[in-house]
Amino acid sequence: MEFEREKALFLGNQLREFVAFVHQSYRDNTYMSDKDQLYRLKNLVDEYKFQLLAEEILRINQFSWEAKGTEILVGRVRKGITSIHNYIENNRNGLFIFSARVYTIKTACKSFTTF
Fold it and tell me: Which domain of life is it from (predicted)?
């Protein structure tokens, strides 16, 4: 179960970094020319509470593997990341910089095959 715990910690860290990247990009607007698309992406990240989900995944798996709690949280992340992935795909010209991080999170979610 140590491998499952490591996967959960990886997902939590990636999710936390994605949230920080979206918020920093919105604040600085260095990668985007269309502020409205980035604002909508920031709202989607906040709507699905990715920061809270990331912190909770990291907290419950900090010392030992917690299967039931992680199952619920990963399900919520999958739901949110699917919606965000679709939004980024529809606005690829302006949000291409986020597609790699979303792909990493989707792949990490898929690695939990028991759910």
Answer: Bacteria
The CATH architecture to which 2-110 belongs is Up-down Bundle (1.20)
Residue 106 three-state SS? helix
Instruction: Yes or no: say if 71 and 8 are a contact pair by the CB < 8 Å rule.
Output: no
The 10 Å Cβ neighbour count of residue 114 is 8
Question: What is the 8-class DSSP label of residue 48?
Answer: T
Alpha carbon 64 to chain centroid, angstroms: 22
Q: What is the pLDDT of residues 24-66, one digit of tens each?
A: 999 988 766 688 999 999 999 999 999 999 999 999 999 998 8
CB half-sphere exposure, 71, CA atoms < 13 A: 6
d(CA 34, CA 11): 29
For residues 67 and 4, the answer to whether their CB atoms sit within 8 Å is yes
Distance between CA atoms of 102 and 62, rounded to whole angstroms? 23
Tell which residue, 40, 19, 9, has the closest CA to residue 102.
Answer: 19
pTM of the model: 0.92
